[in-house]
Design goal:
By secondary structure, the protein is α+β, with helices and mostly antiparallel strands. Helix content is about 25%, strand content about 25%.
Length: about 350
């Protein structure tokens, strides 16, 4: 049996992905629980450190099952070793190398807020992030970075592409107020040899939709009745639409849903994310993007209604009328009176 644990400061780069990450975290959590129950000290600190490095940006692990096991093991580890630190008091400073600010901002961790998640926003994201900590206790520092890409080949590929995913869009209605999505998902045939399975576990399909659009919640619930293996569908922040399947197999599962514009929003992006993955092993996935160039070219005057667009020429246009001033009107009346008097005297 071979075991491997990284150094005391195990990772200062991107969190590595694996198509066995969920199983690895669960197995390691069981190992830490075994060490705790047997009161074994050898490698216990290294196991705890490795588990901490597998956290995602919201504090969980890879999936639900391994997160529950890992948190149980980490809580029991904290209970068993918590008496070694009588008073938590730590100050952690985050400074960006590209920042011009001279103020030093500390994040304080003490006994009163030890279980609270504290976040610090970095305004200038280029350069280096300098982390300086002092005091007594343990602290976990994580950095979350998001960036946008314009082409599918720039997307970080999953550890193993286990699904086939196709999405076709159809835009119609006034100024593309409706978008039909035709989606087909399936489990790839080579998984029979590579993963030894003809179907996936619980699978989730996520697709980003343009801002201002929304899928009716009742339509998503109605889809459960006529879409094979579909367990649930819901809107999510992003805006995002999630579909949870009991499993995906070799036979494609195809379905259609419609997003409708409810809020007039312009200057939209042309790139949108979509992915399908195993719920309990997210490393088995397929990530890609789709394009909506038509709505990208719309401005605000083309998406809002007449009463919402006071400065748009499409709706606020009016025919100009001549308004005579009092002086001009008086001059016209005087001229008409003189002309009438002249004609009367001539007769």
């Amino acid at each position: 049996m071979k075991i491997y644990w990284p150094s005391k400061n195990p990772r200062q780069n991107w969190k590595p992905e694996s198509n066995h990450e969920g199983h690895a975290v669960a197995a390691t959590a069981y190992a830490l629980l075994t060490h705790i129950y047997r009161a074994e000290q050898l490698n216990k600190f290294e196991i705890m450190t490795w588990l901490q490095t597998q956290r995602n940006h919201i504090g969980g692990m890879s999936s639900t099952y391994d997160t529950l096991l890992a948190h149980k093991a980490l809580v029991l580890y904290a209970i068993g070793t918590g008496d070694s630190i009588q008073n938590y008091n730590m100050n952690i400073n985050f400074t960006s190398s590209s920042s011009n600010e001279l103020d030093v901002n500390y994040v304080t961790i003490n006994d009163s807020n030890i279980i609270q998640l504290q976040q610090y926003d970095i305004q200038n994201v280029w350069g280096n992030l300098l982390v300086d900590g002092q005091g007594t206790g343990y602290a976990l520092v994580q950095l979350r970075v998001e960036y946008n890409v314009e082409y599918p080949w720039l997307i970080r590929k999953p550890p193993y592409e286990a699904f086939n995913m196709t999405v076709q869009t159809k835009l119609y209605g006034r100024n593309f107020s409706h978008i039909d999505y035709d989606v087909c998902l399936s489990w790839l045939p080579q998984n029979l040899e590579i993963l030894g399975s003809n179907k996936s576990g619980h699978a989730q399909f996520q697709i980003q939709i343009p801002t201002g659009y929304r899928v009716e919640e009742r339509w998503l619930k109605e889809m459960i009745t006529f879409t094979r293996n579909l367990g649930d569908g819901e809107n999510a922040p992003g805006p995002m639409v999630n579909f949870l399947f009991d499993y995906l197999d070799l036979d494609p599962i195809c379905f259609t849903f419609t997003a409708i514009r409810y809020i007039p929003v312009a200057n939209l992006s042309r790139y949108y994310e979509m992915k399908v993955f195993e719920y309990h092993e997210p490393g088995n996935a397929n990530r890609s993007m789709y394009y909506l160039r038509d709505i990208f070219g719309l401005d605000i005057c083309e998406v809002c209604g007449s009463y919402q667009c006071p400065y748009c020429p499409h709706y606020a246009f009016a025919i100009s009328t001549f308004q005579a001033s009092p002086i001009v009107l008086l001059t016209i009346i005087s001229f008409s009176f003189i002309l009438f008097q002249s004609i009367f005297l001539a007769t």
